[in-house]
Amino acid sequence: MKITLQTKLDANYLQKLERKAKELLEKFQNWQYKWVFFSGGKDSLVALDLANKVWKDFEVIYIEVMGNTHQKCNKYAKRIVENYYGLPFTHLKREDLDFYDCLVKWGYPSVLWKASRWCLGQFKEKVARRYTKYRGVSVAGISPSDSPRRASRAKPIWFSGWTPVTIHPLFWFRKQDVWLYIHENGLEINPLYKEIGWSGNCMFCPAMRKCEFEQFVRTEFFLKWKKAHEKLRERYDFGCKGMVVLFKKFDKMYAEYVEGG
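Structure (tokenized):
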């Protein structure tokens, strides 16, 4: 790679971000229970790499959403944790629930109203809290640049979440900083980014944009969603405004991609 002034400036800026993240992690390095939640996505990959540079003893937890996680994501996450970092890989999932069955039963989970975000609560939070016994400190690969909602609420240290304390080493990172860190540190990204554009830990997401849905249509998960949405069409419970908005959003996509051929 050709070394330019901009390259040097970017490298210096990245070093400052990394230093801030490490200082945050160092505050908790002596805690007995330390967890890193790794989804197989680019953000949590950087968070995992940063934690590995500071913490000596911690556990990596990967949570699969039954019925809605791509097997390539499962395989990638396991390989990165075990082979690249040489760490134990804890793979958690709910055996008693399927995402698309729950979609039919409970309707679309809202991304704005926490009470209706059953996808996060049922498939991840309950599993995580049961395993950690709500102890210690955890690392999450979340940054304010992810969304305006996160930008308004994000903090470097969050006294809540799946453990009593959750820290966000990427608090100071922008999206381009995450990609730059991956490049500069030679990290291997999930192959699904090239195939569909995201990690595949959650194949269907209520927050997905139309351009992402167009990629989703090309996967085997589209048929699962199609069957679930058709059942929702038959008997939709308009009990939550957030879910109604999402139902209408995806009903338009159903009309375009299924009925429109």
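The mean pLDDT is 90. The longest helix spans residues 5-26.
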